[in-house]
Structure formats: structure tokens, C-alpha cells
Amino acid sequence: MSPRRTAAAIAFLYLFLGYIWISFSDRFVFTLAAESSYLTQLQTYKGWAYVTVTAFMLYILAHRALQRERNFSERDGLTLLLNRHMFERELNSELAYAKNKDHNLTVIILNIDGFKQINSHVNLEAGDRFLVQIADIIRDSCHQQALLARFGGDEFAIALPDSRWPDAVVPLIQNIQRRIENLHVAEAPRLNFSSSAGISLYPRDGNTANTLIDAATLALDEAKNSARGSYKLFNAELSQIVSARAQLLLDLKEAVAQKQLTVVYQPQFCVQKNIMTGVEVLVRWHHPKKGMIPPSDFIPLAEENGLICAITDFVMRQAIHELISNELLYRDIKRVSFNVSAADFNNSESCERFIANLSSLPGDWSVIELELTESAALLNLEGIKGVLNVLHEKGVQVSLDDFGTGYSSLNTLRLLPIQEVKIDQSFVKDIVKNKQDAKLVRTILAMAQALHLRVVAEGVETHAQANYLMNAGCEEFQGYLYARPMPIEHLITFIRNLKQQRAQS
């Protein structure tokens, strides 16, 4: 029953009870003042007026209360958009109408890229205000016939009745994405946002609300994995791709739990002195059925699903254990670099985690270096700064990986305790032929020299690249030209052979 009908029923019941009350009370008054017709009429009118006015007020109050309760059950309390349950219900009604009228319909699932940064690194209130702004943008961009909902978190849904693809849909999505990119959080102006969208079409992709929502969600997952700020239309192949990714995630969770991951080491060199300056520790996953899974496939998956911290902890503990047990650390290896993610700094226990991972070191912690990419640092600069400052006081060194690919390199160097920068391999690859890359590398080297920073060029694969970098003033190199990543057994042999070569020379 609707709130209006329920309120009317309550008011009618009150009128009926009022009628009974008036009838009995009038009889009592008539008994006392039977000779005064004026008094009896006044009593009757007064009673009816009281009951009628009270019933009317009761109807208004009941209607408002019931309407508010219904809104709470049907709408998202923060944005006042429909909730998922009501969106599905209304969407099924629209689909029935579209079927009768032979109309089409589009479902869009929208997700904000990087929204968790606000809740994690600013506060929940800022996140709520941001979501309200997103809802206002969606509401303002869509026509009145559109169904708008917030499914929870930063996921929104739009249903566009009788909308043509792509003519009417693509401009709408692009407009919403453009307006979201222009939003900023006052407490963290450095944070930049984008949105990804998945799209499904009726009747092509399904004829029920759940089918269309699931199809659009699959397309959204593909959009988020392809590029930030993109949109994808559902197709049959996506179902297989997303299913495979979901299975890979389950396998990765088991691999982490069962300690199926391994670590390998890629040496770094000072060529002019003919010495190995350190090693970078990398993680590898040999799937029992699929063989070697590239890190580019499972590391982003781990970051997106909360597994990266467990992987980081395993890599640090395992590498330190292997290097110490084989008596390589401090003697043959003076620097061990670990890659860390922005997700490794997302909670208050991050500093304690790193300290616990390094607690087994028998000597100075300056042998440890944490490699952080520029893009990761910019996601949570203040939080990362606090943790790195504590670790730096204990001797841990910090390297800025993929240097030059971010948009705020100098500011990052200024705010974080950096001792090393790594020239990104994308600049090294064409350094001999590309004048722009060559100029940029020389600028990085000059700046690092002025700031007394160590520089490591990664991805060095040819002698031409190495010669150019040496002539430009770079002293340390990492890449396939010198050594590929190798397990601990091969590293032991590699170091032994390197010692023999130096002794013979």
C-alpha cells in the first residue's frame, strides 16, 4: 500500500473513532442540558470540528512519515538516488514498457577510479561530499526519464529508456567523465580522478534487469583494466575474459596462502668500477597448470584486491632469509631493493609491517632500499612521507622508480627522503635515436648530481645504450645486457664467477 493510501486509512479510522466518541459524549451532554438546544448544537459542531481538523493533521503527518520511511528503503541515504533494489524494480518496469513499445534501453554502470584515496588518505566526510557531487553531476547530465541509482561505495547506475547507441549514449558518458575529471577534493588538491563505465543494451545483451546489470558490470571491469577514464560496451568475449580473471584471482589467493610465490634477484652494476652495487628483488609466480604468470598480470590484480601487502611481506621476508642464510648480505651484496606499492601505505599499521619484515636483519638497515614509483607516491604523498621518514631514521634508503614519468617529479624529491632515482626504461630504450629522451636523461642526471642523488638506469639491453649513458654521466646500470633476474642458486654462482673474473683481471 502506498504512503498516501496508508495515511488516508489512518485518518478514516480516526474519523470513525471520533464519530463514536462524539455520539456517546453528546448523549451525556444532552442528559445534563436537555432544555438548551443551543448548547447541544454547539457541542456537536465543536466535536466534529475537532475530530475533522485532527484527522486532517494526522493524515499529513502520517503521509510524511510513511513517505520518508519509504524513501529510506528505496533510496540511497547519502545521494537520494535509487538504491539497487529499487533500481532493479524500476528497470524491470521500464523493460516491460520497452518490450510493448518495441523500444531499446541502455544500462550504464559507472565507477570512480581512485576513489578509495579519499577515504583512506583524507577522511570519510570528504568522501561523502565527493559522492554527492558525483550524484549531482549524473542527475544534471541525464534527462528526467532516466533511472539513476547508487549501488554502494563509488558505483553508480544509469538506465536510459529509448536511447540510441552510440549517438545518444556516448556523448552523455563523455560529458559525465569530463565533469568528474574536473572535480577536486579541497583537503587533497593533488588527487586527480577519472571514471570508468560499462554499458549493456536491451534487447541485445538481455531482457531482465539483473542480466543487463551483470553485463554492464562485466564491461566496467574490462574498462577499468584497459585504461583509466574509459568505457566499454559489453560483448560475449568479455564474459570469458572476466571469468578467467576471476579464476586467476582465486588462484592468486591460494598461491599467497600456500606460499607458491618465489623471489628472484636482478643485479645492479657500476660498470666503470666493474662491481655489483646491489640487487633488485622481484616476485615470480609459477602457476601449477598455466606455468609462469607475468607480474604485469598478477601484480595489478593483487593491488586491486587487497593482496599486495601480503605479497610485499612475503618478498621482503623471503629475500632477507635467503640472502642471510647464504651469507651474501653485507658481504657480497651491499644493497637490496624492494618494490613497494601505494597500497602498502594505506593503513596505520604500515610502518609496523615494514619494521617487522626487517627485524631479522643482523646488521645496519641501510642495506635495504624501498623502490616507490612516482605515480604511487602521488596517490598518498603525506601518508607515504610519514612512514618513509620513520624508516629512513632507522637507515632504510628510498629510491624513486620510473623517474620522469610523473607530473610532479621535483616536488616528490623535495618532500620524500630520496637517496636514489631510477631512470625509466622507456627513456633508455630509444636514448640513442630519440633526441628528446636523450635531453631528458641528461637533465635527470644533472639534477641528480646537483642534489647528490644516486642514479640507476634500468632496462639497459645494448652496448650503445650503456655507452651513451656512461658518456652522459650515469654510473649504475640494470638490465638484460648485464644480468637477467635469477633465483638465489644462480645468484650465488653469478657472484662466484664475478669474483673470479675480477681476480683474473
UniProtKB/TrEMBL annotation:
Statement: the UniProt record of this protein carries the keyword Nuclease: no
Transmembrane feature ranges: 49-66
Keywords: Membrane, Transmembrane, Transmembrane helix
Pfam families: EAL, GGDEF
Ranges of residues in domain GGDEF: 103-236
Domain of life the protein comes from: Bacteria
Keyword Transmembrane: yes
InterPro entries cross-referenced by the UniProt entry: Biofilm_reg_signaling (IPR052155), EAL_dom (IPR001633), EAL_sf (IPR035919), GGDEF_dom (IPR000160), Nucleotide_cyclase (IPR029787), Rev_trsase/Diguanyl_cyclase (IPR043128)
Domain EAL residue range list: 245-499
Annotated NCBIfam families: GGDEF
Protein name: Diguanylate cyclase (GGDEF) domain
Record lineage: Bacteria, Pseudomonadati, Pseudomonadota, Gammaproteobacteria, Alteromonadales
